[in-house]
Design brief:
By secondary structure, the chain is of the alpha/beta class. It contains eleven helices and 13 strands. The chain folds into two domains: 168 residues, 3-Layer(aba) Sandwich (Peroxisomal Thiolase, Chain A, domain 1), CATH 3.40.47; 151 residues, Thiolase/Chalcone synthase (Peroxisomal Thiolase, Chain A, domain 1). α3 crosses α4 and α8 runs parallel beside α9. The chain binds oxa(dethia)-CoA.
Length: 329
């Protein structure tokens, strides 16, 4: 028994934040942003709504599309670094909104690798036979933790959600085949939100020092991301006795066009084999991979039996790759 993706959906807020608008907010320019990152615009959810709003909308699309009653869901995992609240979990809010009355669930913090961590975790509950329907959601409202006075970070991030449904299959031509995941806490200081947790709870001082916003040492993260993502993706391909021509689609985390491009060159893939949508959405953290995969599915870029490699790198450091055979028609 293996776990297959049997449904997929995504949600992006309507409001766009363009490079031209950012030019009015910080000392930056459209050309710098495009050449250094590949980003043209990102989506912003706005006040009064949390990450759960996008997560619920992405999940609903799957349930409606597949006509599945919410009470058939066994487990909901929400990968996010921007929960609605610290307690309870965003999964609890999603469960309530979907009226998924027969499930349990939890949030998973794997930062930009969160969706991969969650997908790997969820697949185990299917493979053991314990669960039949698991919702895996990657969702982040990055605009809630971004300092729109910091040009190093504010140009990079956006808000979105993507979701998949996992179900069991006996068919060898479709399903999650393998994953390789890593964690190295020595990366902690290069990409973090310094305050607001138990180490440095919120105080007047932490607010005054802008310590509740995301901090990133971009250059250091960039170097690790290129090597981490390319190496782990090449490794999963060879470990499964495949080569780069066998891969129909490489769907990487969308943090920077140059990171993706370097990884693609290192892996010997062609441009047709890679999914890139960073120009439209920026870095949406846990949502990038399910969002890109959902758009690729809508564009019919993969068919049942196709080999697909997912890869991510993010805060922690966390990184990894996941190999699957596409199962949805
Ligand atoms: O998803 C989680 C993982 N995150 C990532 O993978 C992100 C990894 N890092 C990156 O994508 C890149 O490092 C950035 C896009 C964040 C920055 O690009 P970079 O090529 O590494 O630029 P840099 O930080 O070395 O900055 C180069 C110059 C600096 O000026 P000086 O010191 O050379 O005079 C910056 O101050 O560009 C300046 N700069 C900007 N200029 C215009 C930095 N941000 C901006 C900006 N607009 N927004």
């Amino acid at each position: 028994m293996q776990a297959m993706i049997s449904g997929i959906g995504h949600y992006v807020p309507e409001k766009k934040l363009t490079n031209q608008e950012l030019e009015q907010m910080v000392d930056t320019n459209n050309e710098w942003i495009i050449t250094r990152t590949g980003i043209k615009e990102r989506r912003i959810l706005g006040e009064g709504k949390g990450t759960s709003f996008m997560a619920v909308n992405a999940a609903r699309r799957i349930l409606e599309q597949k006509q599945i009653p919410a009470d058939e869901i066994d487990l909901i995992i929400v990968a996010t670094v921007t929960p609605d609240m610290t307690v309870p979990s965003t999964a609890a809010v999603v469960q309530k909104e979907l009226n998924a009355t027969n499930c349990w669930g939890f949030d998973l913090n794997g930062a930009c690798s969160g969706f991969l961590y969650a997908l790997a975790t969820a697949s185990q509950f299917i493979e053991t036979g314990k669960h039949k329907k698991v919702l895996v959601i990657g969702a982040d409202k990055m605009s809630s933790i971004i300092d729109y006075k910091d040009r190093n970070t504010c140009i990079l991030f956006g808000d979105a959600a993507g979701a998949v449904l996992l179900e069991p299959t006996e068919n060898d031509d479709g399903g999650i085949k393998d994953f390789i995941l890593h964690l190295d806490g020595r990366g902690e200081k290069y990409l973090c939100i310094p305050a607001g947790g138990s180490l440095r709870p919120a105080s007047n001082e932490t607010v005054a020092n802008r310590m509740h916003y995301l901090y990133q040492d971009g250059k250091t993260v960039f170097k690790h991301a290129v090597t981490g993502m390319a190496d782990v993706s090449a490794k999963i391909i060879t470990a499964n006795k495949l080569n780069s021509e066998d891969i129909k689609l490489f769907i990487p985390h969308q943090a920077n066009y140059r990171i993706i491009d370097a990884a693609v060159r290192k892996m010997g893939l062609s441009d047709e084999q890679v999914v890139i949508n960073i120009d439209k959405y920026g870095n949406t953290t846990a949502a990038t991979i399910p969002l890109a995969m959902s758009e690729a599915y809508q564009k019919k870029l993969m068919k049942p039996g196709d080999w697909v490699v997912l890869a991510a790198f993010g805060a922690g450091f966390t990184w990894g790759s996941l190999l699957l055979r596409w199962a949805l028609d």
